[in-house]
Amino acid sequence: MKILYLHFTCIIFILNSFSGAAQSVNDYHLLLKNGSFTPERNILPDGSNGINLRTSSFNSKSFVIIQFEEIPDEEERRQLKNAGITLLDYIPNYAYTATITGSFNAKILSTNKARAVVSLSAEQKMQPILANGKFPAHAIKTAGTIDVWISFPGSFAFEEIQTGLKNENFTIISDLYKNYQVVSLRIPVARLKELALLPFVQYVQAIPQEDKPINNKSTSNARANVLASALPAGRKLHGEGVAVGVGDNANPLQHIDFNGRMINRTAVTDGSHGVHVMGTVGSAGIVNERYTGYAPKANIIAQNYSGIFAFAPAYVKDYGMVITNNSYGGDVNNCETFGVYDMYSNILDQQAFQMPYLQHVFAAGNSGSTACSPYPTGFANVLSGYQTAKNVISVGNTTETGVIAPSSSRGPVKDGRIKPEITAQGNLCFFNNSKRYIWFGNGYEHGFSGSIGRFGFAVSAIPAA
């Protein structure tokens, strides 16, 4: 059974590894990415209005944070919703993002043990680097502008956001992730704070960087040879009936080992990284049987990088995709971004609830040699975004003898969670290259893709309903 972890909204997340265990009943620190503070109590016990909200509204809805004396139960949440107060995502400690529809009702909040209502400043709703006036070069496409992602509360429909942005002369340049309450804009740098203060904007971050790509004893070391074996002790598993999604950068139709099992949605004509990743997952071993992939009879859905999860709902529905292979990342050389939980992380965590039979798996990164103070070299360099989501599995890279490879990224991530969850051999592996060749080399993606193949084995072993 897959264990799901509740995703937090993107404005929270400076928790350290001990915060969950050490949280006391009286700890009312509000933990945001831009710092922590204890909100002043402004919900009075007698229900009188001690609040002077500095927020505006849109379509009669205001976005706020509400902190409680205790976490409200289902009945209390229902009472609040009936009063026009919708709780959204949890924020440590004892708080939720929320929208208030219509007039403010201090009495119902007091009855349900609320202690404070907080209206966030522009800086509190922005990625720290943006709030500090530093704009990443990759987000500057034209002089004087910056490309950003904004998230909006789930209580607003996309059509409302579209209208509200248009009314304020902001233009959406991509709505690919609108179903996850994320849209992309290109705005004048001078209007960044103005955007953040809009009542339907929950958080603003710079647009993510473009994705970058990050075996003969591998199968035996991982015991995949036993799973595939037709001998009495074997399991005769080859990935039959399993649909595996691979997000990468190559045309898989270049190689004969994928004939008849490829659903190609990659709009590229060449490339090699994606081919050898797919080969580790599911090469048929036609060129050389010795280098057969982990799940040689699995169907493979090929898509360009993060498109594999952007279009995951369609692939799950149309092809029964149950797992994805993702060996890429955004910023691979920056300690400031390593381990950050961002909007990509949040989208992936939402998908874990929307598609509970789909498992995303990501390579943790090849940045293991990067030193990120105060941690010793080799730690706290797991890539941000995809890899730091709570419901994905991130995979580390080992040598042939099972020792963590020096290049393998390791946690903790920024909020203190341990990553990666598992490891697999990624060094001294044979893999498919473009055309009909087999190459030999090292790299994170080999062991990572082998893990996907093993998941494919597991799924193919499940009896049909």
Task: Name a few traits of the molecule.
465 residues, alpha/beta, 7-stranded parallel sheet, 4-stranded antiparallel sheet, 21 strands, disordered C terminus
Give a verbal description of the structure:
The protein has 465 residues and is an alpha/beta fold. The strands form 6 sheets. The chain has a 7-stranded parallel β-sheet with strand order 13-14-12-15-17-18-19. A 4-stranded antiparallel β-sheet has the order 4-5-3-6. A 4-stranded antiparallel β-sheet has the order 8-9-7-10. The longest helix is centred in the C-terminal third of the chain and has 17 residues, at 444-460. Residues 11-24, 215-229 and 436-465 have low confidence and may be disordered. The chain is elongated. It has helices at 19-22, 74-82, 106-111, 128-131, 158-167, 192-196, 218-221, 224-228, 273-282, 307-310, 312-319, 343-354, 444-460; strands at 30-32, 35-37, 61-68, 85-91, 95-101, 114-118, 145-151, 172-174, 182-188, 203-206, 212-213, 243-248, 262-265, 299-304, 321-326, 328-329, 359-363, 393-398, 422-425, 429-432, 438-441. Helix 9 (273-282) runs parallel beside helix 13 (444-460).
What amount of the residues lies in strands?
15-25%
Helix content: 10-25%
Radius of gyration: 24 Å
The overall strand count is: 21
Please state the structural category.
alpha/beta
Mean pLDDT over the full residue set: 81
Q: Which word captures the global form?
A: elongated
Main sheet: which strands, in order across?
Answer: 13-14-12-15-17-18-19
Gap between N and C termini: 16 Å
Query: Helical element count?
Result: 13
Q: Give unreliable regions as ranges.
A: 11-24, 215-229, 436-465
> How would a textbook summarize the main sheet?
7 strands, parallel
